[in-house]
Amino acid sequence: MILKHDAQVKAAQETRALVQCLQASPRSCIALKVSVLRARNVTQGWFDWIDTPDPYLMMRIPTSAEMVKRTKCVSNNKNPEWKEEPFVFHIDPEENNVLELTLWDEDYNEDDQIGDAVCLPLANLQLGKPEPRTLKFGEHSEVDIILEATRVVEQYSDLRYSTDLCDEEKDFREKRKSVTFEAMKKMLGERGPQNVNEVPTIAVLGSGGGYRATTGFSAACHALEEMDLLDCVTYMTGLSGSAWGLSLLYSQTGGNKIDSTETQKNIREQLQWGPLWLLTPRRIMHYVKEITEKWKKGQPVSLTDFYGHCVGESLLGRKKDSVKLSQQQEKLEDGVVPMPIYTAINSRRDVSAQSFAEWVEFTPYEIGMDKYGTFMKTELFGSKFFCGKLVEKFPESPLYYLQGIWGSFYAILLQRVLKEEGQLKAIKDNDNEQQLLEKQFLPHKNDEENSSDDDDDDDIRILEGKKKENGESSFMAKLQTAVSTDEETHKIDGKGTKNQRTEKKEFRRKLIDYVLEKLPGLQSRSKRAGLVHNFLRGLTISAPQEFTDSAPSQCCLETENIKRRRMELIDAGLLFNSPYPPLLRKERSVDVLLSFDFSARESDEERPFKNIKLAEDWAMRNGLLFPPIDADEQFEREGWKECYVFKHPTNPKCPIVLHFVLINKTYRDFIRPGIPRISKEEKKAGNFPLFDDPEKRFSTFNLKYTHDIFDRLSGLVEFNTALNEQLIKDTIADCIQRKRTLNY
Q1: Which of these, 240, 284, 530, 555, could form a disulfide with 208 (CB 3.0-4.6 Å)?
Q2: Phi, psi of 438 (to 5 degrees)
């Protein structure tokens, strides 16, 4: 098995060398300035006797980064002058660029177009030479403009192009190594490192699994902290539900410390309420206002935005609007805590994620893709880039929106819960969790006929003016009426007769249906993923001929990626449910991986190795070092264990994986390691199933964790982690000895 494994890795490494040549790089683009000077004889004919025109000019270049711009409206003026700064469009000189201009008369109900659109091909513009143009709209109306094109060649790019770690992370690693060196010396004594070069890099990672993963990961972190092992860890990485738990660990306290006890306490309190308290009409109205404002400013929105508000309200509480990922940099300044890494995948709605998906990593310093060697400052995520240039900066995305992306699968679940009350039980009883996730995100037949990248109308509507504003006002007015009706008829404290509570639930369900139908941006076909502006757009990606010849279809998809206006980011659990990829980068040189797997299983008896085998397969296909997963052999030999060890028998540079699985075995008989359960109450507290539980209390689809559920699950995970304390320490000591012997 080992020989076959090594041969596969070697072959994959050759492919990896080609794929890694897909390094993206910036290139020059054209900045087109459009100065709108004045208009003459703006008229709607005889209608001018009733209402003097209120003209404005709309400009659109479908191939540009900005796409649509418009002047201000000049009221009651047939000969307006626009004293505005030139409008700037960034365009790719290799595209067929056409400037489309339309003249409009603003009206209360619906704006009126004057004449036909004017289309100006831009291929023959002379760089650096202003070109005046007079445009005619209809028989009488004229508009004077000046076009000026200049080549943009930046001295530096607003993106970073390298597979190397950023300077901030390198600086963190140096500081952190000193901390872990002292911690390992204290913990291991004579077996500890003698110098910092012998210090192994240790990472903790948690899988997805909804609130089960959030609860479990927070419990695992608490156990590691109690054993002083967290001081030995350099990286902590989460996916989906574990990413929620990890982000809370770094958001609950100020300064450069983290407090797992306080985080657990807060999670325990927050998860007990379930989703419905988040969906009062007043809260919904707040969500709608925030999402509408984001859409109006020119950012794409989807169901993930709505769901992100719910997740943030549930996990972060009242301070959710002020919490940002970049704020976690403060905790890393002195290297006293591990560095967090969060994950998602870039998908395409017309291609299965199993066929094509790209890992995106989120850290307090940077967000980007190792595959293309392209990263941006965390504060710039969601802003608009073109050819590597930042062309439109938006405020930093709040943490709750990122939480929505990291666990975007649950946006679909929430929609089902809201729209079909009886659906949740059916999901719990019948659906395989991975199958449901694939159902929601794999290509649909409707997508095949609508598989173009963008919904251009969204961009146009942002600037349409009064027509849009009136519709929006009407929508908000109806929502405000719904809020008043709900609060006056049935108090929000949940009291009242059974009939009143039923009416209230029905009213809210109808309100949710109305919001999802009317909320701007959610009528488009891109409802399922988190939508952001594509920061790869317009870059150059160099693919070697060998790669183009060996994988032409994949190369075509990757080349298309740089043309897409938007990225569709989804829960990385669709690919496999453990965030190994960012930790397997050779630049991070991780030696020990403490892997906590909270993935769903069909029953307690199903072997818990599916996702780690998928991770092994992914690593081999990408030519990355990963130990052979001889899980079935170990299981046949040793049976059920709380932790399985996977390491390469001959390659000392291959990382070691300690794979913690979610089982209730030893915990049934022991309160703490070495302390048996004696009383009936103690035995009853430890005797519970996980995936065979008839009440589905630990299901991925359970969105309400009572204190009892939380305490049972967190107690189990803490116990299973503490039970293997010596195994973890011995593994660290072995790595230190290995580094000392090999001197690498």
Answers
A1: 240
A2: -65, -35
Q: Which residue has the tokens 């679940």?
A: 413
Token pair 């909320």 in the structure block, residue: 519
Which residues are designated catalytic? 240, 571
pLDDT over threshold 70, residue 60: yes
The first and second tokens of residue 299, run together, are: 């950012």
Residue 168's CB: how many other CB atoms inside 10 A? 17
What pLDDT digit, counting tens, does each position of 480-493 carry? 666 565 555 444 44
Distance CA 149, CA 90 (A): 10
Structure tokens at 275: 């989703």
DSSP assignment of 451-471: --S--HHHHHHHT--HHHHHH
CA distances from 318 to 27, 309, 312, 322, 379 (A): 43, 11, 9, 9, 22
Side-chain half-sphere of 333: how many Cα atoms within 13 Å? 9
Q: Are 69 and 90 in contact (CB under 8 A)?
A: no
Share of residues in the chain with pLDDT > 90 (%): 57
Range 167-426+530-742 has CATH code 3.40.1090.10: yes
Lowest mean pLDDT among 170-184, 450-464, 551-565: 450-464
Structure tokens at 258: 């983290």
Q: Residue 38 belongs to what H/E stretch?
A: strand 29-40
DSSP tag of 127: B
Q: Provide DSSP, 391-430.
A: EE--PPPBHHHHHHHHTTHHHHHHHHHHH-TTHHHHHHHH
Delimit the domains of the chain by residue range: 29-152, 167-426+530-742
**Confidence check: pLDDT of 516 > 90:** no
Residue 448, C-beta contacts closer than 8 angstroms, at least 6 positions apart: 350
Mean pLDDT over 457-484 rounds to 52
Calpha distance 175→179 (Å, rounded) = 7
**How many residues are given for the chain?**
744
Could you tell me the two tokens for 323?
A: 């919490």
Rounded CA separation 630/616 (Å): 11
Distance CA 670, CA 431 (A): 34
pLDDT per residue over 591-618, tens digit each?
999 999 999 999 999 999 999 999 999 9
- pTM of this prediction? 0.88
The mean pLDDT of 248-274, rounded to a whole number, is 90
For residues 602 and 599, give the distance between their C-alpha atoms in angstroms, rounded to a whole number: 10
Backbone angles phi, psi at 292, to 5 degrees: -65, -40
Quote the CA–CA distance of 563 and 567 in Å, as a whole number.
10
The span from the CA of 615 to the CA of 594, in Å, is: 14
| Cβ neighbours around 422 below 10 Å, total | 7
Q: Are 486 and 267 in contact (CB under 8 A)?
A: no
Q: Helix, strand, coil % (nearest 5) of the chain?
A: 45, 20, 40
pLDDT, residue 744, reads 54
- Cβ–Cβ < 8 Å for 731, 236: no
For 29-152, CATH gives 2.60.40.150
Could you give the CA distance from residue 474 to residue 171 in angstroms, rounded to a whole number? Answer: 53
Residue 595 to residues 363, 472, 480, 733, Cα–Cα distance (Å): 19, 48, 48, 18
- The residue type of 559 is T
Look at strands 656-661 and 339-347 and give their pairing. Answer: unpaired
DSSP label at residue 378: G
Q: Which among 258, 244, 161 has a CA at the least distance from the CA of 410?
A: 244
**Closest Cα partner for 371 from 408, 404, 388, 346?**
346
